[in-house]
Every structure is written in C-alpha cells, then in structure tokens.
From TrEMBL:
Domain of life: Bacteria
InterPro entries: DUF4372 (IPR025399)
Stated name of the protein: DUF4372 domain-containing protein
Domain DUF4372: 4-54
Length: 59
C-alpha cells in the first residue's frame, strides 16, 4: 500500500501555485470556463505528457 505522495504529485508540488494563478489571471485563462479550469487542464495535459500519451481521448 502506498503511504506517501505519488510521483506525479511530487512533480506538481514544484510548480508554484501563486505563479500559476498569476499567469491565469494575467491572460484571463478561466474566462468563460465552466467545469474545467486552467489548473485542471494543466494537470491533465502534464500527466499525458509525462506518461507519453499521444491521445487523451483514446483511453
């Protein structure tokens, strides 16, 4: 049983939350976003990139 953080969680912890939010606010990234925020999109695309996915809809 895993008792610690996942590797993905450890990698994402190195990205400063404040800096990410500053960029999203500066470029109005969440404008008209309803359910899927910029943070969610970033996490999904980062996971896909790190796991070598070519298409996230195919799985």
């Amino acid at each position: 049983m895993n008792k610690g953080k996942t590797i993905f969680s450890q990698i994402m912890s190195h990205i400063p939350e404040r800096d990410f939010k500053t960029c999203v606010d500066r470029y109005k990234g969440n404008y008209r976003a309803r359910n899927f925020s910029c943070k969610d999109q970033f996490l999904v695309m980062s996971y896909a990139q790190l796991t070598g996915r070519e298409c996230i809809l195919c799985y």
